[in-house]
Structures are given as structure tokens and as C-alpha cells.
Amino acid sequence: MTVLLALLGIGALGAAGSAWGLARGGRAARLGAVGGALALLVVAILAFGLDSAPVSRTQPAGGGVLDGGLSANGYLRLVVALWALDAILVTFVAWLSGGIRGVRGLLPATLAAIVGGTVALAATDLTLGAAAAGAAGLAALVALVAGGPGFVAASYRELRISLLGPVLLIAAGAAAPVAATLVLRDVSADVNGPAVGPGEAGALMGLLALTIALAIAVRTGVIPFHVRVPRLADAASPLALPLLLAWIPIPLSVVGLNIVDQLLAPLALPHEGETSLVVAVVLFTLLATALAAFLQDDLRHAVGYLVIADGALVLLGLAALDTAAWGPARSWLIVFAASKTAVIAWSAVAEARFETRSVPDLRGWLRRSPILGAALVVATVATFGIPGWVAFAARGDLASLAAGSPWDALLILAGFATLPTYLRLLVLGTGPATSAVSRAAPERIVRGWRPEALPVEREGALRSSDGGPALAGSEGPAGASGRGAAEVAGDEPFEGSQGTEVVDRARARSRRVLATSSASASHAMARGARLVGRLTRAMRRDGTELTAAAVLALAILAALTSWGALDIAGAAAQPAPIVAGPASD
């Protein structure tokens, strides 16, 4: 619990401090950026130190800060750690691409969203979890401040969604125990009074399941709520889209899955109509967005449709209304966020490097950017997985649990309908380069240092700040009494009384020590500033290669996630913290 509270405190302080500093500009902006980046790094380190033990179903009442309202678990540990690692790489790319301005909205929004998401995933109370998920969504407003001219309308849409989702989840969680009571009355032989028919109870539970599915569908952009995604892509900074489209939906989705897994699915009521409706929506979304992504010539919009298609698979975990869907659905959420972060980052770097969002104008990009090409290949593999990987298994499990044969096979095939879009981007990159691609600098690794025009220091040029003698080896000025430097140093005897001579020698020695210390400190600071400056210039000079390498690192992280590193499937299958709402007792 101590590590969890430390993570929340550092994340909150980093978000507030970086937001304040970056908004002021100048030196404060640099300090805010450095402080926020360090906070993000510490959050990643603390996330790996969180408790990974399974959650107990008999959560003890606490006397802690939140009275037992938070509980660390293995799934929380993996999600926050991967989120922070991805955020560090995305922030690094944003800084290389746009300097301090590139991270102005992204850095504080990411830290704030991680704090809200951590509370939502660790909450043992439904109201607290849903409210924290909504707070994580509100972090999108901070990220949109640094976006394009349409950020006002986009912020208003994000505000509505961030408020609507938690309200729907809290209402469904509060009504679920009431519906369960009706079901128990119906099956109990000792109940006096009118019984509720099984059709009415089943319809009520189905309505609650659809309410939860609606909240998640709006957040992920499932058709017919897809129009928001391309508009958001136009208004936000490209490197803020991984946060807005891939990571922020996770807390709300997990809270919704909690309600279904613990309050609805155990009742095992008939729900064929509701399941068929959700499956039909998911199937249509998969096919329609795959076609739209393939035909779309705007790179941001095409990637947005790819995100919608993968996000729609989460709804299959709700449609199943089966406790067996709990693990695969949460596993897919991690794979979805990691793989789509890599794909969005690839598109943002490609757009910035070739200065175009037009997909046809990117012809030949792979010839100029082989590292980016490798990143897209790895991200594509991470998106779909291969047999034996967690991602591949999660796709199949969700489809089979949500729909019977032959619809499960159709859902699996529809999930692979976006593959032609990835292949189109790769094949397009092998063609003859367009003028936009030809203008861009090719990827290359610079060996050694380029000659830099640095100021030349002459020995003894540095003097103390109080006008004292120069460093050894220089011609120092005369002392205050008119004597030379050698006389001040004590090379010649002083005239006058012995007491005056001792005082003068002590003063001279003090001035010499202060001058040497001040000059040494100034020299060390100057050397450090020059070193930082040279390192910054070197990173900016090799920014083409470093940004591509960062995207490749994101893709590798996504592939490891898709494979199932660190026992992701086991952590996702662990019980969630107890869902307790206002009417659940």
C-alpha cells in the first residue's frame, strides 16, 4: 500500500508541477519538463514494485488513507508499468520532434491519466473506480490544449464522454444488486408475494449489460460513435493520440468488466438477444472500419479506424456475460493499448518526417526509413499475434465465448480484416519515392562527434566574482594596498607590526581560497552546461534515427506484450478488487 500511495503522490505532483512550469514558459518550462519526465520515470520504477499477489475476495476493512478503498494487484502492476514505459518513449519522441512545446500538454496529461487509471484499477468500490476512470478521461482536456484549432470542440466532446461513461457504470452497478434480488425471489420457493417472471429479470439484466456496453462503446469509438475519432485526430497533437485513443479507455473498460464479471455473469440468465445485438455491432464495426482504413488516404484517419477496430473486440467480453471472458478481455486490453501506441507513434513520426498526412504521398517511405519499417512490421505482428501468443488466444477466446459456431469463426476472420491496411502501408513504402519522401533526410547513424565551435579558454582567464586574484599562472591585479600578487601571496615580507602582518596574511589566504573555489565551481558548471549542450545537439542532430529507434522500442514492447511476457494472461485472470456500490450490500 505504501508503494501504491507513493506512486499516486509522485504522479500527482509531477502532473501539477509540469503543468505549471510548462504553462509559464522559459526556464520554468524547462524545469517543468525535466520534473515531469523524472516523475514519469519514478512512476515506472514504482509500478514494478507494486504487489503482484492475487486479490483476496475477502478484502479486509482498512484504516488506511482511503479506508481500504485501494488494493494493489498483479494486473494493475503490469498495466501501469507498461503505460509508464510507453509514455516515456512517446514523450522522448515528442521532445525530439517539437522541443519543450512538444511535451507541453502531453506530459502533465499522461501523468494525470496514469494517476486516475491507477485508482480505477485498484479501487475496491464501484463508485470510486468509475469516478477515477472518468477523471482519467478528463486528462484528455489537458492534452488537447496543445492541439490544433479545433481543440475547443474536441474538448467539449471529450468532456461529455468522460462524464457520461462513469454515470452509466455507476447506474448499472447500483441497479445490478436490485436485479439480482428479483432473480433470487423468482427462484426461491420460500418467498411470499408476487414473483417476478424469468423473462422480466432476464430483460433487466440484459438492459444493464447493454448500458455498460454503451459506456465502453462511446469511449472506444465503436460504430455508430466513430465520428469522434477522426475529429479528435484532427484536433489533437499526433503524439497525444496514443494517450487519448489507446490508454484512457482502459480504466473505464476494466470497471465495466468488473461489474459484468461479479454482478451480472454469475446469475447465468438467458441473454441471447442482448448478446446477438452486441456481436452484430462488433462484427459490423470490424468490417466497416477495416474497409474505411484501407480506402482512407489521410494517415491519421486511417490509423484512427485501425484503433476503433481493435477496441471493438473489448465488447465481446461484455457480450459473453460469462465469467470465463474476464481474463481474455483484460489481456486484450493490454495488447490493444501497447500495439496501438506503437502504430500511432509510427504514423506521427512518418507524418513529421515526410511533412504529409497523405498516404499516397508516402510512397517510397520504407526505402528512406528502414528502422521505421521494422517498427511497423513488429507492431503489425503484435497487433494480430501468432498461434501460442496471448493476443492470438484472446481473439479466439473472446469470439468463441461471445458467439457460437459459425459466428465465432466469422468474428475471428473479421478481426484480421485490418491486415490489408498494414500491408498496404508496407507495400507502398517499397515503391518509387515521391517528392515529399525524397526531400526528407534518410536514416543514418552518425559516428563520432562533429566539430563544434566552442569558446576557447585561456589559462588563468577565470577570476573570482569579487574581483580577487586570478588563478595560478596568470598575471593578477594589484592588491587593495597597492602590493602585487606575489606580495599578497606572502612571497615578500610585510611591513608594520606583527599583528597587522598576521591579519593581512589571513585575509589574503581567504581571498585566494574563495577565488579558487568560485573559479572551480564556475568552471565545473560551465563544463556541465557545455556537456549537456553537446549531448542535446547530438541528439537533435541524430533525431531522425533516435525517433525511429524509439518507435521500434515501442513496437518491441508491444510484441512482448502480445506474446505474454511477465505472465500477462495470469495477471489478467486474477480476481479484481471487490466491486461494492451504494446498493450492493
Given the helix and strand composition, which structural class is it? mainly alpha
Mean pLDDT: 83
Which of globular, elongated, flat, extended, rod-shaped describes the shape?
globular
Helix content: 55-70%
Spans with pLDDT under 50 lasting ≥5 residues? 57-67, 189-197, 446-496
Helical segment tally? 24
Q: H/E series, N to C? A: HHHHHHHHHHHHHHHHHHHHHHHH
> How many E-type strands?
0
CA radius of gyration: 30 Å
Count of domain modules: 1
Largest sheet: none
Strand content: under 5%
State the end-to-end CA separation.
25 Å
Keywords:
585 residues, 24 helices, 0% strand, globular
Structure description:
Helices cover 70% and strands 0% of the residues. It has helices spanning 2-24, 26-48, 74-102, 106-122, 126-144, 151-187, 198-220, 228-235, 241-247, 249-264, 272-295, 299-312, 314-319, 326-354, 365-368, 370-384, 390-402, 407-415, 419-429, 435-439, 485-489, 498-541, 543-563, 568-573. By secondary structure, it is mainly α. It starts with a helix and ends in a 12-residue tail after the last helix. Helix 6 runs antiparallel to helix 7. It has one domain. The model is unreliable at 57-67, 189-197 and 446-496 (pLDDT under 50). It has 24 helices and no strands.
